[in-house]
Design goal:
Blueprint (H helix, E strand, L loop, with lengths): L1 H30 L3 E5 L15 E2 L2 H6 L4 E16 L2 E10 L1 H7 L21 E3 L9 E5 H7 L6 E7 L5 E12 L4 H4 L2 E5 H8 L4 E2 L1 E6 L5 H12 L6 E5 H4 L1 H39 L1 H9 L4 H37 L1 E5 L3 E5 L5 H27 L3 H6 L2
Parallel strand pairs: 4-9, 6-8
Antiparallel strand pairs: 1-11, 1-12, 2-10, 3-4, 3-7, 3-11, 5-8, 6-9, 7-8, 13-14
Helix pairs in contact: 1-9, 1-11, 1-12, 9-12, 11-12
């Protein structure tokens, strides 16, 4: 029971870590960015911030020089009407520089170098071609947009938007890509185009609405965020930075919930293991009362009897804990190699690959030992309190 409990915890932990990594990889590298820099007050806007809250595109050079930042991509985000023949829809357009976008959001719809995306990662969801240059006439639409407007690859569509000065302008583009984000709401309204053509239609040359920043890894985001905040502290115009957790609080809460569920499962397994060991040790005491009486008659002290059963309980914990750790290691290794497939709507089949958490493995072996020690306390005390004469008469 102890061995299977430890093995189950190690595997379940590895599976949860794999699911969290896949989900955060999708969020951080596809749906949003690790860190976003924008004008002060932009985060308070509902939906798309006003184009008046813009930043100079040249700011990207100083952001790329911040310690811990490995990439900074300029973006323009705005609302527009997308026309395909006599059909139209209100969409949210994200204009990107594909070269910089690849370094920050490599699986996002605006990434230009798709060959750099690992095949086994959460699928990028792009059907067709990517935007290849900063002034490319390619337009990428979300899967929901394509369905609602009857758009097919190769169609020429028009975008009409209100410029920064308040007038209206329009531009045409060729739909060479359809993006399936796996987020139904995003698929219904997302359109991606090149940065220069967006700046042209909005009449805002060399201006952007935000910068997406990437750190070396997710564990380095917090440190990079501190450095970015120092860099922009005295910027003109006033600027603010937000991490992916602030940009996508729903996914942050899902990760927190999964970790909380893991703690509950660990508690349940702990109780089951504790009950199993207590039962085993109590049966051992009841079945060996005559042996205990004989040992006491031969001169064994009560503390020696107590120690004897405690050593047995700890030995049980050590052996079963190590056996469970080896079994858990084997299961995680096999499932990491084969992958655990499941289907994501609009993306297809992806594989979760459980990973071994060495710290967690060691903690579970230690937990098994402590649990066995705690579970053996009462049976050992019960054995040491037996009276030799009564124990010798036991059947």
């Amino acid at each position: 029971m102890v061995a299977l409990g430890v093995a189950a915890l190690i595997f379940f932990r590895g599976y949860i870590v794999a699911i969290n990594d896949m989900m955060l990889d999708m969020v951080v590298n596809t749906l949003t960015v690790p860190i976003q820099v924008e004008r002060e007050g932009a985060s308070a806007s509902l939906g798309v911030p006003p184009l008046a809250l813009d930043l100079p595109e040249s700011m990207g050079a100083s952001l790329r020089a911040v310690p811990g930042i490995v990439g900074a991509t300029p973006r323009v985000r705005f609302g527009a009407y997308l026309f395909n023949g006599d059909k139209s829809s209100l969409v949210v357009v994200q204009a990107v520089d594909p070269e910089h976008e690849t370094k920050v959001a490599p699986r996002g719809p605006g990434a230009g170098h798709r060959d750099e995306v690992p095949e086994d990662a959460a699928a990028s969801g792009l059907e067709g071609a990517a935007i290849t240059s900063v002034d490319d006439d390619t337009i990428i639409v979300g899967g929901g947009v394509a369905r609602s407007l009857g758009i097919k690859l190769g169609d020429t569509v028009s975008l009409m938007a209100r410029t920064q000065k308040g007038s209206t302008d329009a531009i045409e583009g060729v739909v060479r890509g359809i993006h399936h984000a796996g987020d139904p709401e995003l698929d219904k309204r997302l359109v991606v185009m090149s940065l220069r053509r967006a700046q042209k239609v909005l009449h805002m040359p060399d201006r952007v609405t935000s910068f997406g920043l990437a750190a070396g890894s997710r564990s380095e985001i917090a440190g990079a965020m501190v450095a970015v905040q120092k860099q922009i502290a005295n910027s003109d115009p006033p600027t603010e930075a937000r991490t992916w957790e602030q940009l996508a609080p729903y996914y942050r809460d899902v990760v927190t919930l999964q970790n909380d569920i893991m703690k509950i499962v660990m508690g349940v397994v702990f109780i089951l293991v504790l009950a199993g060991i207590v039962n085993t040790m109590m049966m051992s005491v009841f079945e060996r009362q005559r042996e205990i009486g004989t040992l006491m008659a031969l001169g064994f002290r009560r503390r020696t009897i107590l120690l004897l059963f405690m050593v047995e309980a700890v030995g049980l914990g050590i052996i079963s804990g190590l056996a469970g750790a080896l079994l858990g290691l084997l299961i995680v290794s096999v499932t990491h190699y084969t992958g655990i497939p499941f289907t994501v709507p609009a993306i297809g089949t992806i594989y979760a690959r459980p990973v071994l958490d060495v710290t967690y493995l060691a903690a579970n072996v230690l937990l098994a030992m402590v649990t066995a020690l705690a579970a053996g306390l009462y049976p050992a005390f019960r054995a040491s309190r037996l009276q030799p004469v009564e124990a010798l008469r036991a059947i």
